[in-house]
Structures are given as structure tokens and as C-alpha cells.
Amino acid sequence: MRITCIIIVTLMILPWFSCTTTPESVPLAFISSVDPHSYSRPDEVSVYHIDLFLSVDFEKKSLYGLARIHYNIHKPGAALILDIGKGLEIEAIKDDSALEAVYRFGEEDDILGRSLEIEIEEHSGFVEVHYHTNQDAAALQWLAPEQTHGKNMPFLFTQSQAILARTWIPLQDSPSVRFTYDARIVVPGGMLALMSAQNPVQKNESGEYFFQMKQSIPSYLMALAVGDLTFKELGESTGVYAEPGMLEKAVYEFAETEKMLQVASGLYGDYAWDRYDILLLPPSFPFGGMENPRLTFVTPTILAGDRSLTSLVAHELAHAWSGNLVTNATWNDFWLNEGFTVYFEYRIIEALYGYDYAEMLASISMQDLLDEIEILTSSGQLEKSSLKGQWDGLDPDEGVSPIAYDKGYFFLLRLEALAGREAFDGFLKKYFADHAFLSIDTEYFIEYARRNLSIEWSDDFIDNWVYGQGLPDDIPVVSSNRFNAVDRELKNWLTGKKPNELETENWTSHEWQHFLRQMPDSIDAKDMRQLDEVYAFSESENAEVFFLWAMQAVKANYKIAFGPIETFLMQTGRRKFVLPLFREMKKHQHTAGLAEILYHKARPNYHYVTANAVDALFVIGS
Fold first, then answer.
1. What is the pTM for the complete model shown?
2. Which helix (DSSP H) or strand (DSSP E) does residue 546 occupy?
3. What distance separates the 2 farthest-apart alpha carbons in the chain?
4. For helices 355-378 and 408-419, what crossing angle results, to 10°?
């Protein structure tokens, strides 16, 4: 149980104390195997709670403070080993008697950073790590006022997944380690601080904010954002934060979030995180969304004005069960987070908008998966198409691909077909309940499924789906009636029908995406202009549609779209769009030079996650 106490706060760091759960009351989370992406040894000493104090300095682009690390000892005499990433500088470490602790660093690795090994006494309960970050801390993006919507105040946000939490907090940066936390964050006046925790809904004059996360989370779900932010409720348990000038637009776009929460809870059990709020970030955010518990981070590229892209919210919400509640033990098991979440997302969408709508999303997943297999095959990297990842020695961020998401989804869809939906729903509900706040690996899941899902299992079936390369022969077939209608209209256009004669009146964003994806490479600039004059694709504010149009425009050398493409790449930092668009531009002589110039110009606007992925395409100077 948690003991209630009064916290006396001063501006000094050392006297700041927090009441925490006692070690005896915290169960050790399931630990499947050694995590190849962490130096920590939680089987010997495991972190179970962190008290965090941070002062945010926008002028120096640094965080200053301390992390009080509470731990359990499982092997007498063992050291506490933490992960330290590039950009995090240790100033001092003290034990629970305020004495200097003995510690040492391991050798630095370009991907993993270095280990921090702290000698501890068996009677000790915590250590205090005093530290600050510098501008190399990859998780942190510091935005100048002109990079925000309001252009009056700077902005800071974090992106900890996969192994970037270690660049702004010293911790055991492995998804197999779960902990609770309390935090005190001090920010400049007039700004609001938010975390993946219980959050304030309005600014205070002192700039001092307190947070509590009472449910245990893995390190990659640690999150912080600071900016000129306001809040508005969406429902009883949901709300949205955004810059003032974006708030009403966000409220409209995310209006159905409360319904999504109710549907999700009805499918697979009670929501375990109290509230579900959304933070709309500036456009440099590198992903569509990040499922930080209690506070999903989302990109403004899903603000289409017609709620057509908010299936992404359903996806991040589904992570409250698959990922946040039951977590992949290592990043080699990433499909356990994402494959389950795609399946859950489509079930939410089906319940809200119908089977035909969900089938469009499933068809897009299949196309994404086929495209990824083609890329891996042509590049001689088909071994990366196995569900069970092999990312040892590599950046686990490379595993963020349609393999984990879409191949994982189709594996679960295959299990549903074999078991029947009713039985599969019962299995998933039990799965989430049995493993709440635990981390598991692929092998454990397979054995659990064998015991609890009554289908005909075979070693060949598992090998083909989980460990095999490419796509299994029994992959489910998806067919969308609405996309079939789109295909007919595309054929009509390609065989002579004028663009303004096509039957497109009731098309959603998804139909337009399918139309653009299916256009043949033989389309030339003249064809593009005919479409553009009718449908104004080059002026589209729907990011998904514009991205696909931009890809076609590059192939066809449709110069009219090059100006909007430059604006898009300068203002959008979402890796899903930026990386393939620059890759496509580099492939063609007519855009390769423009791509080089534009990337060097746009790169300062991108988060490390995006820039790190795109840098390989270009020669980046010092």
C-alpha cells in the first residue's frame, strides 16, 4: 500500500523527499531473458520506483536535477547497474545516508551508451544520482518559439522509445523493468509541464509542478513536455492539451475519444490508467503518436479536419492494454506490443464505424506489409522480416516497421480465424488480465497461447509465422468492397474517363490514399496536372493524402508540386513521411540535387529519431 504523507517542498534539491511503495510490496515483473539493449541486470538488482526532480533550462537547453533510484536486491553483493546514454552527465551519486557512493562507468557504445555500476550496501534502499543533460541528449527536442504554432514561447518534448530514456534519466532502460515514479518539475513562468502521469490542467504562477505515476511502467514510457499549453475536456475520462491556437481544432478532431475508450474497455477489460488524455505536439514530433500512459503524444499531421485520420488515436489508446499493460520484454519481441495493438485498433474502429471501414484499414496494412517485404527482398535483408526480431547489436528503432505492426496483426487475425472470434476475444481478455503490469517475450506468449487457445498448433505453423522470413502461405486474405470501387474508378480514368467524371463524392481519406497508391509509375506530369486541377492534391491539408501525392509527383517530375513538397518537408518531422519522401527524391536525377539542399535546410527542424534515420541518405557535415 502507499502511505499518505505531507511533502514539504523547498527550492533545494536534497531536502525533497517523496513517499514511495516499500520494496516488500512490489512484485518482481516477469523477466524472460537478458535484454541485449540494456546493461542493467534486473535479475540481480531491480529498480521499482524513481523520485525525479528536474529544472528545465531553455536557454542552455538542459535539464538539471536528480533521480532518486529505489531498488530491490535479488542477489546479495550485486551492484546496481543503470543505463546512461549520450548527453547525460553525472555530477554526483549518494547513497541513502547522503554519503558519496562508489561508482564506475563501462565502455561507451555508439548505440547503447554506457553502463553506470553503483556499489550498494545490502541494507540500502535508494541512491541519488545528481546529473544534467546537454544538447546531445537524443530524447529531447528543444524548439524555439518560431518552431511552435503560437511563436511566443519555446517548447520541449521527449521521445524515449526505444532506448532514449537513458539520455535524459539514469535508469534501467529495458522494457523488462517496470517502476512507479513521482516527479517535481520546475519550468519558466507562463509554461505548463506535463508527464506520463497524473497531470495538471492549468498553469500555475510558480512554474513548479508535481506528478505521480502510481501504476508501474517501463522506461520507454517516461515522457515530459513543456510549453504554452491549454486543456479542454473531451469526456468524463478524456481530454486534450494543445497550444491555444490549436486547441479547438484538436477538440473537434478528437471528439470521439471517449467513445473509443468505452469500446476498448468493453472489448478487453477495464482501463487501468485512470484518465486518457492527448497532447497535440508541434509538427516536428517524429511519430504519428506515442502511447505514453495517461498522456498520448500525437502529431498535428492527423488533424485532417474531418476526423478521418483519428484511427491513430484508437491505436495509441489500444496500447493502454497491449504495450503499456502487457509489455514486450525486449525489443526483439516488439511485435507483442505493435501487432496486438493494430489488431485491437481495428476492432475499435470496426465497433465504431463498421466492418467495411475496418477492412479498408486492414487492406492498407496488407499493402504496407507487401511493400516492406519487397524493400527487404530487394536490399538482401529478408531476415528482418521475422516476427521475432534479431536486433542484437543494432539500434532497436530499426524494428519500427510493418513487420512488427502488420505481420503481427495478420498473425493474430489468423489465430482469430482458427479459434473463432468469440473464443479469441475471451483469450485476449484473459491474456491481458493474467499479465497486467508484466513484461513477456515471444516464447512465453507462444507457450501461453498453446495452453489457452484451443486450435491445432504445430511447430511448422509457429516457425512459419514467428521465426520464418517473408509471408506465410496461410496469411489471411483481405478484401475491401470500398477499395474495389476505387479500383474501378482508377481503371476508368486510366482508360480515358476525365478526372471530373469519376464517382468520388463519398470517398474518405482512405479511399484517396488507395487511389494514389495504386497509380502506375507510368503516370506523367500531364496526367498529374489533370488530377490536380480537379482535386487540388498539391494543396491538400490531409498529410496522408499529400504524402502519397508527393511520392507520385516526384516519380512523374511534376514540378508544380515541388514547392508544396518543400513546405511539407520543412514543416513536418514525422519520420513515416520524411524518410520515404527523401529516399524517393534521391532516386531520381531530376530531384536528387533538390533533396540534398532541402534536407540540410530542413534537418534542424527534425527530432533525432527522424534525422538519425534520414542521415544515411546524405553526407552530413560536422
1. 0.93
2. helix 543-556
3. 82
4. 130
In the CATH hierarchy, which fold is given to the domain comprising 23-228?
Immunoglobulin-like (2.60.40)
Encode pLDDT of 375-401 as tens digits: 999 999 999 999 999 999 999 999 999
Domain ranges of the chain: 23-228, 321-467, 483-617
Pick the CATH number of 483-617 from 1.25.40.320, 3.30.300.30, 2.60.120.10, 3.90.1150.10: 1.25.40.320
CATH number for region 321-467: 1.10.390.10
Strand partners, 233: 239
Residues whose CB is less than 8 angstroms from the CB of residue 536 and which lie 6 or more positions away in sequence, other chains included: none
> 181 - beta bridge partners?
50, 213
CA distance 446 to 220: 24
Determine which helix (DSSP H) or strand (DSSP E) holds 311, and give its type and residue range: helix 311-318
Return d(Cα 127, Cα 98) in angstroms, integer.
Answer: 9
pLDDT in tens, 234-279: 999 999 999 999 999 999 999 999 999 999 999 999 999 999 999 9
Cα within 13 Å of Cα(97), Cβ side: 7
Cell of 137: 541528449
**Which residues are designated catalytic?**
316, 405
Helix (H) / strand (E) containing 68: strand 62-73
The single-letter code of the amino acid at 313 is: V
Cell of residue 423, nine digits: 473464443
Type of residue at 361 = L
